[in-house]
Design goal:
With about 280 residues, this protein is of the alpha/beta class. It has 2 domains: about 180 residues, 3-Layer(aba) Sandwich (Rossmann fold), CATH 3.40.50; about 80 residues. Helices cover about 40% and strands about 15% of the residues. Helix 7 crosses helix 8. The longest helix has 28 residues.
């Protein structure tokens, strides 16, 4: 049976996290971004010593924060980044590591108290099937938090035009050799991400709304995060985007209810509980 993964994309992320292992990400910034993702997560619903999974854990940057809050965390990733996560979390005894794809049945059915997958499932061929696999690992009533790239449905024509141009660039850049790919995406971080972020920061300080400015999310981020995300965005062979309605449908089809979206950035973050 064909696995629900794209080999080139898996290799790309293994390469990315090998270069950006997040050791240089400031703790305060990591915590702030984590809080943005988890702002809608129902922490109070978790049992004592909850056991859950981080699907597509990458270098373990979010696992390193989550593991302090729960009983046991299962880190799952099909790329070589799993070894970076294992090294990063080597000081913890309440973590397990699985170099597997979402459809490899890493954990028993109905066994997990929670799960999350942040910025991962838009990089697999069949996102809907992947969400169903996540649901299968969860206990009934367990929450699942997910971040998927949004389809820019609430943005202007100009904003969407810029994204179309950037996506054409991605389709070229993602095919470059590793070293050259890193150089190009670093250049984009310096010449595109950083200027837009600084302009957004200034305009926000002047009391203006920056929600319609591309890359305004990075206005309070370090250049390290911009470099990481430039490599993530432009170096990835497979990328999909979803509207809020499409995500709701995928969640419902996978057996989730009580679906809540965070309307702030990053979009779309969504949480639901397994029926």
């Amino acid at each position: 049976m064909k696995k629900n993964l794209d080999k080139a994309t898996v290799e790309s992320f293994g390469d990315e996290w090998g270069r950006f292992n997040q050791a240089n990400l400031p703790d305060e910034e990591a915590q702030e971004i984590f809080n943005q993702y988890f702002s809608i997560f129902p922490w109070s619903s978790l049992p004592d010593n909850a056991q859950g999974f981080d699907l597509g854990c990458g270098s373990g940057r979010w696992a390193k924060i989550m593991i302090e809050k729960i009983g046991h965390l299962n880190c799952i990733d099909p790329s070589n980044a799993i070894h970076i996560a294992e090294k990063s979390l080597s000081g913890y005894t309440n973590a397990s590591f699985f170099k597997k794809s979402v459809d490899d049945y890493s954990l028993p059915a109905n066994s997990q108290d929670f799960g999350y997958s942040l910025g991962v499932l838009h990089h697999v061929p069949d996102t809907g099937a992947a969400i169903k696999e996540c649901a299968a690992m969860l206990k009934p009533g367990a929450p699942f938090l997910m971040y998927l790239y949004y389809a820019l449905e609430n943005q202007s024509f100009f904003y969407k035009f810029l994204w179309r141009c950037s996506d054409l660039c991605r389709q070229i850049i993602c095919k470059l050799p590793s070293g050259l790919k890193h150089l190009v995406t670093d250049f984009l971080a310096l010449t595109i991400y950083l200027p837009f972020a600084k302009i957004s920061w200034i305009l926000e300080k002047l009391g203006m709304s920056v929600s319609g400015i591309p890359l305004s999310f990075y206005r309070n981020c370090s250049f390290y995060t911009m470099r990481t995300d430039s490599r993530d965005r432009f170096g990835t062979p497979l990328e999909q985007r979803f509207t809020q309605v499409e995500i709701s449908t995928l969640m419902i089809d996978a057996g989730f209810k009580n679906i809540i979206f965070n309307n702030a950035e990053p979009r779309w973050c969504v949480v639901g509980t397994k029926s």
